Amino acid sequence: MNAEQSFNRWVRLALVAFGTLLVYFVLIDNYVPMTPQAQAYRSVLPVAPRVEGQVARVAVSNNQSVVAGELLFALDETDYQLALERASLQQQLATADMERQQAAMNTIQAEMEQVRLRAQELSREASRMERLHRLGHMSVQQAEQARNLAQQAGSALKAAEARQQEALQALAAVELTNKQAENAFEQAKLSLERTQVTAEVGGRIGNLQLQEGVQARAGQPLMALISNELTVTADLREKSLRHVRTGTRVGVVFDALPGRIFNGHVSSIDSGVRQGQQQADGQLVQPENSDRWVRDAQRLRVHVALDEPVPALATGARATVQLFPEAGSWLHGLGWIQLWLVSQFRYLY
Questions:
Q1: Digit-coded pLDDT (tens) for 218-261
Q2: What is the largest CA-CA distance in the chain?
Q3: CATH number corresponding to 53-76+195-216
Q4: Rounded to 5 degrees, what angle do the CA atoms 45, 46, 52 make?
Q5: Which fold has domain 29-42+228-273+299-349?
Q6: Tell me: the pLDDT tens digits for 130-146?
Q7: Phi-psi region for residue 219, left (φ > 0), alpha (ψ -120 to 50) or beta?
Q8: Where is the p-hydroxybenzoic acid efflux pump subunit AaeA-like beta-barrel domain (predicted)?
Q9: Confidence (pTM)
């Protein structure tokens, strides 16, 4: 084989290799896409008290694992304990006033019932005397006397009804005062309970710099709680997502865990990116000018849920994500080989 033949052979081999790689990358990118632009995220919750006060105790240390409901720190509860006692006394006084007013109301109602019965009796008696007078069995004086007694009883009944109405209004006022006292007591009790700040979810304490004696304000974050729930996000080119749906199988390799592949699935795909968000600001549009013939591809964010537990990873840990949109496709084998090579490469970089 002369030099020209050898050169031609190498050219053919190079063209075949180039064509094979081109077909490989086109198939992989369109049907089993992979991206190294992926990260693991954990929700970071700012921990802030809902009441103000001096920090009396810090119950956790930095990077400590905590469970939901575990005490993180406590504020000085002296002022809140006194406020609760005052609210309790006010509630007791309001309850006593309401009970006294209720007793007075019961007495007035009993008296009014007697007055009503008396008025009804005298009214019937006056009617009877009037009939007897018309028949000539009673004198005018006797009939007039019975009529006057009935009128006096009616006036007494109206006065009793007025007293009952006043008592009802007074009772409503003390009931309102008692309700306000109950609310004040419950608020004082709640404020006292809020001096004990607990973990809302299970996780780890991060960047703890809190010390006893610090004056805390309501709503001011004093530490960070990193959730145990891990979420992976991956950014892929638009065209690579044509066959990707919610539930598509996913393989994930974390830089911090080389040699291991974790299974998962697509939980959601974002509907857009910030560059595509327009705001009605009253100004004219400013087109993007570029003299590049081949522009950068737009990427969309894919959210991945893992199907198996993952060892402790820091939030923000880097990862590589491989998607398998076509179920049962022979390209899956290439995808798994590609992902396995990446997992081994992570031992080096």
A1: 999 999 999 888 889 999 888 888 888 888 899 999 998 998 99
A2: 161
A3: 2.40.50.100
A4: 140
A5: Elongation Factor Tu (Ef-tu); domain 3 (2.40.30)
A6: 666 666 666 666 666 66
A7: left
A8: 231-322
A9: 0.66
